[in-house]
Specification:
The chain is an alpha+beta fold and 562 residues long. It is built from 11 helices and 27 strands. InterPro entries: FTP_domain, PepSY, Peptidase_C_arc/bac, Peptidase_M4, Peptidase_M4/M1_CTD_sf, Peptidase_M4_C_domain, Peptidase_M4_domain, Zinc_Metalloprotease_M4.
Length: 562
């Protein structure tokens, strides 16, 4: 199979393709992802996806390969060993999880170089996971970034002062522990939970006298150990039951009670670690935060999105999405908030419906700036996910499915917003879903999911003309249909009205940017479908209009006059 692909790509001697994974779509087609190798060394960021049918015929689907590497690399020998490279890079003497992997890397001058991708974990009061790309011959640091990704017999309490106390074995299922005599150990085939008890290292599963664990109440929470162990199993089951994959290639390790008053959680390359919080947070072991950290591991073992730039925003957003999916998997509903249950104040860490509500995140690609914190740039994909999940015929499970498949097949190390959205569209095509909905959701946040072609400026609704009514509009409950009208400088205002039909449609209008349910210039708050918004304008102004279903509606007429 790979030989045929080599011929299709016209790869010269020394170039090979190594299978990474294979996924069969709903249509019965198998998609296979291959990593490009040269002389047995991985080519950084170079992979292709091929499609096979039931007859075994194959065709290239997407991806990229690097050619003419032999011109830049007459020798594959390195002057620095992996240990030499790590010694030059690492500054901590207490490091763990060291990794030095040899790659072929195309630098900014399009020159192929032998490099080590280096990383390690540094525990302590301010844990860190530095990454670097180092020239394997000269020791030059080509690039570097911070990669620490933060944010059935057992019984016992869980929850915190905000959620209220609940009981495992009564309010929720039993804790899945291993019992030996009177000793219960928080370890099973899928999840192991470790009590760091204020320390920063440790890997031994926590044990207690069966069946009830009450260790330990801290900072307003009743037993973070119980919560972490239970939620870790929920996350495993979600990936396994919904998407037929394990979240990680090894047992999930949930490390609880990290350090003292530590207000964060992180994935360090081998385990999920949770602090006990202090003033801002309760212990950080809510279901969505647990799923978030596990899913950083999923991303690292699949697309390996770099934790910086636009790829970092996608990385962070995927983990946020996983939190909502886990909530829906366990409860049948989700709150569209990140970390609300462990946030001591009102509100939450981040918001899906309107990411800008936290005062720092962005909800549109036009607001992205180079070097932006990945937690803030994540708002672009978070809002697209929210819009897709709330599109008629989708829902949280399907919307996260296409994200999971894109992560497994189509995203790679330096994927951009447009490339990432294209991958989601391809995953939707593979599953037989309506990809126009994917394009529409991403178009709303300024991202082109059409894989290189120019999308309709608004494929869901469209442009309105002065005084021209659009009739017989309909939508489901919570559906959002977007329109706009360009108001010339010669006009000073625009009047937008909806009327007629049945059900209850809500009108949202905003000048200069798309409205959300929490950010708009006009929202009449009336029952039924007879609503009007009058908006003042200055100069040439694009006025955006959203028609949202408070309940399902049909037969509605929309008109704008200036």
């Amino acid at each position: 199979m790979t030989q045929t692909l080599n011929q299709q790509l016209n790869l010269p001697t020394g170039h090979t393709l190594e299978q990474v994974r294979a996924i069969t779509s709903a249509a019965g087609l198998t998609k296979v992802r291959y990593q490009q190798m040269y002389q047995g060394v991985k080519v950084y960021g170079a992979s292709v996806v091929a499609q096979t049918n039931s007859f075994g015929n194959m065709q290239l689907s997407s991806g990229q390969v690097m050619t003419q590497l032999e011109q830049d690399l007459p020798s594959m020998q390195t002057r620095l060993s992996p240990d030499d490279a790590m010694s030059k890079f690492a500054t901590s003497e207490t490091r763990e999880n060291e990794n030095a992997e040899l790659f072929i890397y195309m630098d900014d001058n399009n020159q192929a170089r032998l490099v080590y991708r280096l990383s390690y974990f540094d525990a302590g009061d301010h844990p860190s996971r530095p990454f670097a790309i180092m020239d394997a011959n000269t020791g030059e640091i080509i690039d570097q970034w911070e990669g620490l990704a933060h944010a059935e017999v057992g019984t016992g309490p869980g929850g915190n002062a905000k959620t209220g106390q609940y009981e495992y074995g009564t309010d929720f299922g039993y804790l899945d522990v291993t019992q030996s005599g009177n000793t219960c150990t928080m370890s099973n085939a899928n999840v192991k939970t470790v009590n760091l008890n204020g320390g920063t290292s440790g890997s031994t599963a926590y044990s207690y006298t069966c069946p009830r664990n009450t260790v330990k109440s801290i900072n307003g929470a009743y037993s973070p150990l119980n919560d972490a162990h239970y939620f870790g199993n929920v996350v495993f089951d979600m990936y396994n039951d919904w998407y037929n994959t394990a979240p990680l290639t090894f047992q999930l390790t949930m490390r609880v009670h990290y350090s003292s008053n530590y207000e964060n959680a992180f994935w360090n390359g081998s385990s999920m670690t949770f602090g006990d919080g202090q003033n801002t947070f309760y212990p950080l072991v809510s279901l969505d935060v647990s799923a978030h950290e596990v899913s950083h591991g999923f991303t690292e073992q699949n697309s390996n999105l770099r934790y910086s730039n636009q790829s970092g925003g996608i990385n962070e957003a995927f983990s946020d999405m996983a939190g909502e999916a886990a909530e829906y998997f366990m409860n049948g509903s989700n709150d569209w908030l990140v970390g609300a249950q462990i946030f001591k104040g009102n509100g939450s860490l981040r918001y899906f419906e309107d990411p800008t509500q936290d005062g720092r995140s962005i909800g549109h690609a036009d607001d992205y700036t180079s070097g932006m914190d990945v937690h803030y740039s994540s708002g672009v994909f978070n809002r697209a996910f929210y819009l897709l999940a709330n599109t008629n015929g989708w829902g949280v499970q399907k919307a996260f499915e296409v994200m999971v498949r894109a992560n497994q097949l189509y995203w790679s190390i330096d994927t951009t917003f447009d490339e990432g959205a294209c991958g989601v569209k391809k995953a939707s095509d593979d599953a037989g879903y309506n990809s126009a909905d994917v394009i529409a959701a991403f178009n709303t946040v300024g991202v082109n999911a059409s894989c290189g072609s120019t999308p309709d400026p608004d494929p869901v609704g469209g442009e309105l003309q002065d005084g021209v009514a659009v009739s017989n509009l309909s939508g489901a409950s919570s559906s959002e249909t977007n329109y706009y009208i360009d108001v010339p400088a010669s006009a000073s205002s625009v009047s937008v009205t909806i009327s007629g039909g049945s059900g209850d449609a809500d009108l949202y209008v905003r000048a200069g940017a798309a409205p959300t349910t929490s950010n708009y210039d006009c929202r009449p708050y009336r029952w039924g479908n007879n609503e009007t918004c009058n908006i003042s304008t200055s100069g040439d102004t694009r006025v955006y209009i959203m028609l949202r279903g408070y309940s399902s509606f049909s037969g509605v007429t929309l008109k704008a006059d200036y």
